[in-house]
Amino acid sequence: MHWNDAGILSLILLAMISLLLLLLYRTRLGSLLHEHIADRPRRRLFLASVSFFLTFAIVRGLVFAIQHQIPPFHYIITGGRHIHHLVPGILILLAVGFGWLCEVGTGSDSSSLFASGLMSLLYGVGSALTLDEFALWLNLKDVYFMREGRSSIDAVVLFGSLLAIGGWGAPLFAALAKRMTKQNCSSQPGDAEEQVKRR
To answer: Are strands 77-78 and 81-82 parallel, antiparallel or unpaired?
Structure first.
């Protein structure tokens, strides 16, 4: 088994999560994020979507390097079996789900902001690793670079869009709904007055 290959992916993802946590808790960018995305559910969705898209880009880059035989990258092989990156993705998702069941990083009063951020980032990483190989679990064969592999891209775009809309689009939709409600309330009295004038 090429442990160095699994280690390379692990180190890259660990470095990405560490950098995002550093930016979130030790820089002005983190303060701005907390000011403009005040509530925890939307902030968690935002962090998950950022780590989701970054992980997807990193994994696609690593697979590209493997396919073009750019050293030191190779597939992870143990006992003659190719270990796909959806395996660590599923394990990460199971760990995050278990953590949330134990109310670690859920945003409740007893949960820390750091744990909330970490669990959100890990959820994005696990989701990206798993959905990048959606076509594999859909077809039960390795179709990553075949026509059927396109369904993985579709799944990533759909789920990534859902995360992004939940994190970034929620205030927009709330503002639009509020504006439409105001317009409906203000247009109704005027309509009644016009109806009285017509009679």
So the answer is: antiparallel
Q: Determine, yes or no, domain membership for 178.
A: no
Neighbours of 142 (CB within 10 A): 14
Domain that holds residue 149: 3-173
Q: Which helix (DSSP H) or strand (DSSP E) does residue 78 occupy?
A: strand 77-78
Residue 55 · residue 129 · CB < 8 Å: yes
Per residue in 2-21, pLDDT (tens digit) is 445 677 888 899 999 999 99
pLDDT at position 119, please? 94
| Rounded Cα distance, 77 and 61, in Å | 19
**Residue 74 DSSP class:** -
Within 10 angstroms of residue 135's Cβ, the number of other Cβ atoms is 23
Instruction: Name the domain count of the chain.
Output: 1
Residue 158 placed within a domain: yes
Peptide bond between residue 41 and the one before it cis (omega within 30 degrees of 0): no
Predicted TM-score (pTM) of this structure: 0.79
CA–CA gap between residue 5 and residue 2 (Å, rounded): 5
Residue 198 lies in a domain: no
